[in-house]
Amino acid sequence: MANILEIVELGNPVLRTKAKEVKDIPDPKVQQLIDDLIFTASHASGVGISAPQVGQSLRIFIISSYPNDRYPEAPEMIPTPVINPQIISYSEGLVKGWEGCLSIPGIRAPVLRHRSVKVKYFDREGNELEAMFEDFVARIFQHEFDHIEGIVFLDRLEDNSEVITEKEYFKLFNENENKDE
Ligand code: ZN
User: Fold this and answer.
1) C-alpha angle with apex 14: 124 to 11, nearest 5 degrees?
2) Distances in Å between the alpha carbon of 49 and those of 19, 20, 174?
């Protein structure tokens, strides 16, 4: 059974700590944590969540992109557990896109990220996989990878004056939607 875990917020030192490699992927505690992370992300309408965000300093995160009330444009994918990841290469150039974070509630800001990343990671069965992620999913990967390095998206901002509240973000988003119609 999966549980909803408490999400720690900015100020908790675990978010500023480089997380440790997972040594024993089949360990029932690790498998339970993965189930709980998937359940917690879905409950919070998150498109990704990392173990440090639930107070566990381990190199595990979930990518769970799907269209939801926080990210209506997100592509649909099966929640994907990523364990002990490495970023092998980045696409050239950076693209700006809006990000928020379950550990920094109520805030959005545009963050520069690489458009695609080539990565290696272990799945929950312990298989080592290589994959290429692009666009929004590459953005989630880079955001979550930062979490296991002890970095939050606010650290990546070029200009603090671009930080806005989620309330204002949704006003902007709805205005843009109307313009498209
Ligand atoms: Zn985050």
Assistant:
1) 135
2) 14, 16, 26
Report the separation in Å between the CA atom of 179 and the middle of ligand 1, taken as the mean of its atom positions: 30
In the structure, ligand 1 is a single-atom ion and the residues with CB under 5 Å from it are: 101
Please, what are the domains in the chain?
A: 13-180 (3.90.45.10)
User: What is the Cα–Cα distance from 26 to 102, expressed in whole angstroms?
Assistant: 27
What confidence tens digit (pLDDT) does each residue in 56-97 have? 999 999 999 888 766 677 789 899 999 999 999 999 989 999
Q: Which residues does the annotation mark as catalytic?
A: 144
82 C-alpha to ligand 1 centroid (Å): 15
Q: How far, in Å, CA of 92 to CA of 113, rounded? A: 10
Question: pLDDT tens, 101-147?
Answer: 999 999 999 999 999 999 999 999 999 999 999 999 999 999 999 99
Distance 39 CA to ligand 1 centre (A): 16
